[in-house]
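> forwarded from #structure-qc
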């Protein structure tokens, strides 16, 4: 097959490209330029949007012996990922930019262009597997599994995707990279959000969305406990950075429980108020056969997060997951990914949906969106 290998400049994508060649495919490497001004995104070895990364990808392609190109995706990336990030926070939601990048860039814009140029598939360094039935499954290395962030793929996109590293632990990938003479063998993994240069998410949002003074309120009593300069700088489940001068009566920390952008209001309370067991999503993306009614499954609510047994019901155009044990901190805007734990070849991704709201079946109040995170 003709395979386009997406090469970020890191060790994973380099080894994935080398394995595709070794498997007998006709491979071409491509690096995605995601910023017209790379210095405004993260620099050094921690990101995936830097000039250094482009150079590392090119050197790896030379060692592997494949053609290499750089594709300018800066405008599309800014519109579909960065602007979406701004708008979601402005709406009081907590987006996952890695999911959005996979959905809109790596397996949409790139795959579409690759298919138009006559390629049969796109290979990436994601840690996930495809079974003999073509379904997406967890990687053998649970600490690196990325099936969650790939849960946004459609069956058509998955059919033209390759994940050569899914059956290998990360430490073995690094050893293999050294054996192959790839200079990126010991390059650190990327962390945080690649397009925020200094890692200061709150500052990044403030620069774009501005400041507006609002109240921080005790949700239970309505008492004003403090003020802030923009509700978009918070995420539900957040504990740090609230700037409250007076502790709770019981001395326990307070957490963000809800964010209301319309009146710029942030409500806080105890951790127990973050407890939820019912989660609703918008329209799901089905990676396997579309299901109806209710069925038993496992759900994951954040990348590398805990897995929850649940009863999932398809209703009102979305999914409702009733967790068999409660979760704490589940943010609107994040993804709920549904797995079949009984699949013959290992956990298979059935569907994903963007979380709209969550609630506790024990609470008398209406829904409250959550997810533990720190801005």
């Amino acid at each position: 097959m003709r395979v386009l290998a997406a090469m970020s400049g890191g060790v994973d994508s380099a080894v994935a490209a080398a394995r595709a060649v070794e498997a007998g495919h006709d491979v071409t490497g491509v690096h995605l330029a995601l910023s017209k001004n790379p210095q405004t995104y993260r620099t050094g070895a921690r990101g995936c949007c830097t000039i250094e990364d482009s150079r590392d990808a090119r050197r790896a392609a030379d060692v592997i012996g494949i053609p290499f190109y750089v594709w300018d995706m800066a405008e599309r990336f800014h519109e579909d990922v960065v602007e979406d990030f701004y708008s979601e926070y402005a709406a009081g939601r907590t987006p996952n930019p890695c999911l959005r990048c996979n959905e809109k860039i790596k397996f949409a814009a790139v795959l579409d262009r690759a298919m138009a140029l006559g390629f049969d598939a796109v290979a990436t360094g994601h840690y996930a597997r495809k079974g003999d039935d073509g379904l997406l499954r967890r990687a053998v290395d649970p600490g690196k599994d990325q099936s969650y962030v790939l849960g946004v793929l459609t069956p058509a996109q998955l059919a033209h995707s390759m994940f050569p590293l899914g059956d290998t632990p990360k430490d073995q990938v690094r050893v293999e990279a050294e054996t192959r003479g790839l200079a990126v063998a010991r390059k650190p993994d990327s962390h945080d959000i690649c397009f925020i240069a200094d890692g200061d998410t709150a500052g990044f949002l403030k620069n774009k969305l501005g400041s507006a003074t609002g109240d921080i309120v005790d949700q239970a009593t309505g008492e004003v406990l403090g003020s802030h300069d923009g509700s978009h700088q918070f995420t539900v489940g957040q504990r740090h950075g609230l700037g409250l001068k007076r502790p709770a009566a019981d001395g326990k920390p307070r957490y963000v429980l809800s964010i209301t952008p319309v009146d710029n209001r942030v409500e806080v309370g105890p951790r127990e108020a973050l407890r939820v067991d019912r989660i609703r999503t918008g329209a799901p993306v089905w990676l396997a056969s579309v299901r109806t009614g209710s069925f038993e499954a496992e759900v994951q609510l954040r990348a590398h997060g805990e897995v929850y047994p649940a009863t999932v019901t398809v209703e009102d155009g979305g999914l409702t997951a009733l967790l068999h044990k409660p979760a704490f901190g589940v943010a609107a805007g994040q993804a709920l990914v549904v797995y079949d734990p009984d699949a013959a070849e290992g956990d298979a991704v059935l569907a994903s949906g963007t979380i709209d709201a969550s609630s506790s079946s024990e609470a008398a109040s209406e829904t409250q969106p959550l997810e533990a995170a720190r801005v």
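QC bot note: The chain has a mean pLDDT of 90. The longest helix spans residues 97-116.
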